[in-house]
């Protein structure tokens, strides 16, 4: 129950069979203690108190006995329900819990609170457009501000090939260029981006990224003709590669230069695309380009969850709501204890959930690599149309070395950046061997706890409590044989 896996659609957090005559079904708050007997004849004998703040998803009533069966869910279900009616660009940095959107209703309130949590953590990179000092990064129109240092090079905008969109920066040799050692030390007459003095302030941290073929990008001080120490990994001879580096300039002047480590005869052509440089330190996974307004536009008919999930996937983040309607945003592989345990009435500080054979009513193992939800490689194709009517396509791929089964899907929405394919593969690859763990309820169990089983070690991904027979089903992840 606590931290049910939101990645599964239509999540049902629990079912309670009880008579609630004369009580409102808009929201149910349940407190089970030991012992508890109700006037309706339902008796519970739990060792621990457990508090729920859940909404009713379904009510089925036995007309003969007058006894309803309730299906309850946390606010995660509301994000799956809610859909935009009018298009908007959402800015979670400005969003506050329960505010910003004045439309009343518990559904919208849940959406606001969830997106506010996201905005507090990653809004400055994922959802808003970071200010790039490169005023022309995607080369969709021209190659403004990109210049050669001398006549041996020609720099222009090209539509022959591109990493994203339809344009890229084309660098052509007007004469033969010798190959250069990589990394090198002295600046040669390479094309560069004409940055204004102090545009990238020295002493501050900056991130710059690009995709390129046959070259790398370096910062340099062209006044002294020396490179900085921020070596960006070189691109291969063929194919596009995303590159990134973090810099802390030590001189007032910084220029972004193209560094060709292969050389070539007259007529050789190199390409660069999606070049961004902005104030760094925001994230572990800097985007290869400035996020566009299209990638954060919330189209009519799109659910709150379908809108926010691709943006979270880009940064390997997981958004989930616990049984007390509190939202959490964590790294996908770091469920971690709550930041503030005062918000969690059910939380108990425990190093691990230790389940011995005597505690378990079921411990089954299923190994099935033919299942549709198991794969170790993924290729996602994003297709969309810009506001100008231009059709766009982008790809996100990831595979483990020696992969054997690939998943492919086409997603009709603007490309939010790489990361979703990796997230899918890492989750799916653990499904080849599945443990079914059911035992006596332990209400201090919480996602993120270390899980110690008779023959396996792992982490608690989700816990489902059955309130009628005092058992729980634990969903493990990251299993290793002990």
From TrEMBL:
<protein>
    <submittedName>
        <fullName>Uncharacterized protein</fullName>
    </submittedName>
</protein>
<dbReference type="InterPro" id="IPR008979">
    <property type="entry name" value="Galactose-bd-like_sf"/>
</dbReference>
């Amino acid at each position: 129950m606590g931290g049910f896996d939101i990645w599964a659609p239509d999540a049902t957090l629990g079912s309670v069979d009880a008579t609630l005559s004369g009580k409102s079904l808009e929201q149910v708050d349940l407190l089970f203690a030991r012992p508890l007997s109700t006037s309706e004849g339902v008796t519970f004998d739990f060792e621990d108190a457990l508090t729920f703040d859940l909404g009713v998803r379904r009510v089925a009533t036995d007309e003969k006995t007058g006894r309803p069966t309730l299906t309850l869910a946390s606010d995660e279900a509301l994000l799956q329900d809610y859909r935009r009616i009018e298009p908007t660009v959402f800015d979670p940095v400005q969003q506050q819990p329960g505010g910003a959107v004045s439309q009343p209703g518990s559904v919208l309130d849940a959406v606001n609170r969830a997106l506010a949590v996201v905005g507090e953590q990653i809004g400055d990179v994922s959802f808003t457009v970071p200010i790039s000092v490169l005023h022309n990064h995607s080369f969709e129109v021209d190659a403004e501000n990109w210049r050669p240092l001398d006549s041996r090079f020609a720099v222009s905008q090209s539509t022959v090939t591109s990493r994203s969109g339809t344009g890229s920066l084309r660098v052509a040799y007007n004469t033969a260029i010798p190959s250069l050692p990589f990394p090198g030390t002295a600046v040669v007459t390479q094309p560069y981006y004409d940055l204004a003095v102090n545009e990238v302030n020295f002493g501050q941290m900056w991130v710059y990224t690009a995709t390129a073929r046959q070259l790398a990008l370096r910062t340099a001080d062209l006044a002294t003709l020396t490179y900085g120490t921020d070596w960006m990994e070189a691109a291969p001879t063929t194919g596009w590669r995303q590159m990134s580096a973090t810099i802390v300039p030590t001189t007032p002047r910084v220029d972004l230069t193209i560094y060709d480590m292969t050389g070539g005869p007259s007529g050789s052509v190199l390409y660069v695309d999606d070049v961004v440089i902005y104030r760094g330190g925001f994230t572990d996974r800097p985007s290869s380009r400035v996020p566009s307004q299209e990638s954060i536009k919330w189209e009519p008919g799109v659910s709150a969850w379908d809108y926010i999930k691709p943006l979270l996937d880009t940064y390997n983040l997981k958004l989930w709501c616990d049984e007390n309607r509190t939202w959490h945003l964590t790294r996908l592989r770091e469920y971690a204890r709550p930041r503030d345990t005062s918000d969690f009435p059910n939380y108990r500080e425990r190093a691990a959930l230790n389940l011995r054979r005597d505690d378990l009513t079921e411990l089954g193992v299923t190994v099935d690599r033919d299942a549709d939800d198991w794969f170790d490689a993924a290729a996602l194709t994003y297709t969309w149309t810009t506001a100008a009517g231009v059709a766009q396509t982008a790809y996100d791929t990831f595979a483990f070395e020696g992969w054997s089964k690939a998943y492919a899907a086409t997603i009709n929405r603007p490309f939010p950046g790489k990361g979703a394919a990796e997230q899918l593969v890492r989750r799916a690859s653990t499904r080849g061997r599945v443990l079914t763990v059911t035992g006596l309820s332990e209400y201090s169990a919480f996602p993120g706890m270390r899980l110690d089983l008779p023959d396996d070690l792992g982490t608690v991904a989700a816990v489902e409590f059955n309130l009628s027979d005092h058992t729980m089903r634990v969903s493990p992840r990251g299993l290793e044989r002990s």
